[in-house]
Amino acid sequence: MHADIPPAIQTVLDRLHAQAAQDAGRWRERDGGDGAVATSAGGGDLVRLGEFYLAVSPDEGRLLHILARACGAKRVVEFGASFGISSLYLAAALGKQGGHLTTTEVHPDKCASLRRTFDEAGVSQTVTLLEGDARETLAEVDAPIDMLVLDGWKSMYLPVFTLLRPKLAPGCLIVADNINHAAAADYLAHMRGSEGGAVTTVIGDLALSYVTP
Ligand SMILES: C[S@@+](CC[C@H](N)C(=O)[O-])C[C@H]1O[C@@H](n2cnc3c(N)ncnc32)[C@H](O)[C@@H]1O
Hints:
By secondary structure, the chain is of the alpha/beta class. The protein has one domain: Vaccinia Virus protein VP39 (Rossmann fold, 3-Layer(aba) Sandwich). Helices cover 39% and strands 20% of the residues. A 7-stranded mixed β-sheet has the order 3-2-1-4-5-7-6, sandwiched between helices. Helix 1 (7-31) packs antiparallel against helix 3 (85-96) and helix 2 packs parallel to helix 3 (85-96). The chain is globular and about 40 Å long. Mean pLDDT is 90; it is low at 32-40. The structure holds S-adenosylmethionine. The site of S-adenosylmethionine has 22 residues, from helix 3, strand 2 and helix 5.
């Protein structure tokens, strides 16, 4: 099942998933279980919830890995790294195909942890971490972007997408998590409308889009 993930990365992933599972229990106690607060922050309280992983599941992570491999992505951008679970699945794919991940995180403690994690997993050469508000740090990212993963605060999906839109390659794959959250509704409406310049479908809690040439 894990055959395509290098052992050094899988070892770190196993530990992070175990920690994420523990704190998912604490999270359910905290917010009543629907995760609503986790994903909706506006600009006023951007840096928060630092103790929570809010991470993709192993299956979702493997899906990101498979998608990055299948589309042969060379330049991938991620909005919202947290403790790096999704980043590691992407880095595992990119390491095999000479690609590079630029990921983003605003919480300073998480950034410090991410740097240690990327070192430990041996992916520091494959991943660039931009520390700060992605709406600013992503302004200078290089084009063309072959794959974009949106998993930061949901109200910022549309601003981040709009910022990066000129740099998205024709055929760019966009994966947006927690798409059924109310705060992501403007993003989904945009992507389903003609102005998004993309074809979009929703599978479960993921929106998958393909930038039309
Ligand atoms: C749902 S978690 C990401 C989970 C991660 N993708 C994973 O699967 O392991 C969202 C993260 O996005 C970060 N974030 C939210 N808004 C941000 C912004 N504007 N810029 C950078 N990071 C942001 C939060 O601090 C949080 O750690």
